[in-house]
Design a protein that fits this description.
188 residues; Rna Polymerase Sigma Factor, Chain: A; Arc Repressor Mutant, subunit A; 2 domains; 8 helices; transcription; DNA-binding; RNA_pol_sigma70_r2; RNA_pol_sigma-70-like
Length: 188
Amino acid sequence: MAEKKHTLNPDSWVKLHADYLFNYTISRVNNHDLAKDLVQETFFSGLKSKDNFQGLASERTWLIAILKRKIIDHYRKINSAKGQAEVKMNFYADGDREGEWIEERVPSNWSNNTDKSIENEELNTVLEQCIDNLPEKYGMVFRMKTIQQFETEEICKELEITSSNLWVIIHRARTQLRKCMEDNWFKN
């Protein structure tokens, strides 16, 4: 039985895939305008390279592969623009609490589902603000590793850092996020 060959229909990309690609992107870059730009760049790159499409993957899967590369390129560009210098930060160390992470601190008793939904939205808003307040490189590495779940090797290769550097950045980002969440969420 012959394998089905997929085809491209660029005239329907916006209608069929724009919302999906945008939602995929916004969760990875957390910037509305940047997400729209990356989706547009993806469509443009897809048009330029449509002759290379072999039909082995679906149209959406192929576009997502292009988009992933665009997102990685965006983070690489940010990293190189800032240079390779590390920002030295003070550690927030607090005895027995050192190393505790946000999920461990979320209240476990909820009064009802509505309250839980509101609390989760508020928690997410505060968490996003705390991530946005991290040094740019820390936020970038934290998002790629923890939220987007890129592999360590892929992040290190794309950002040209060592794995030990990555884990130092992750540790420092988590430490700063914990402090920020304690100051802006848990004390409320």
